[in-house]
Fold this protein.
Amino acid sequence: MARGRVLALAAILLAAGYAWSQWGSEKAAVERRLQAFASDVNAGTSDGRGLEARAELLGSFFTEDVVIDLGRGASEIRGRATVMDMASRLQPRTSAFRLRLTDIGVTLAPGDQTATVVLTAEFLRRGGGDDSIDAREFSLDMIKDAGEWRISRATAVDAFR
Amino acid sequence: MRVLVLIAISIVTFKWVLLPVRTDGISMEPTYASGRLNLVNRLAYFSSTPARGDVVAIRLAGLHVLYIKRVIGLPGERLAIVDGEVRVDGRPLLEPYVKHRRPWNLPEVQLGPAEYFVVGDNRGMNAADHTFGRVDAVRIVGRVVF
């Protein structure tokens, strides 16, 4: 019985140690940053914050020279200012959908200052009593800038060609 | 102990062997209705490759979102859709599972050595609203068993 308890305790300590090491890793920091972005996209605008302030907040997730390529013939979106401008104009419509980021795979470059990420962005639309999901895969380049991970390039990946 | 073994077997089965997925959308109707629960056999192509007519699950970045589609074109084949009729290497493809058909058109495409052409059974919808096309073999995660 005593040996069983020791083994159980050792397993718990190992699991806790592993969880702690993962929480503190840069990979986890990148993932937390992306989840924070999704959370801020989904946040409503009725909390007293202005549209511009929220657009600025969303802009902080991108580098100054960010390039967003949505594919399918859409023009590239270039620069944080453009992203913020679009975010401020799209804000009133965002309550109709929720963004969820799943299957986030992070690969850090040596030095842990840049990372490439693949993920699935799910757009859950609500309305008419029937929810619908649209999903797209994205490939991201991220840079650690002033202690924060920011997206420098986002490219939509077409699974179907 | 038995409960732990049962839990372990369930986790292995439903994560690595039979993946449960819920259909969302109408692109596979009438074969698979929206909201239905299906199972994907992840070992189906362990020792074989997808065959024409197989209903397969296709992944995006991971397994959280899967597309359910039917394989109609195999690696190396030429495929076109003319007024709703699928033609493989110039010959019409018999598709008894298609109940409604609109006059879709797709210029002929040449599939690569590791590419499959997949499409939903619901051809009664607009082609522009339907996700279909060539996919890489590595994106096919298994065959839908029911």
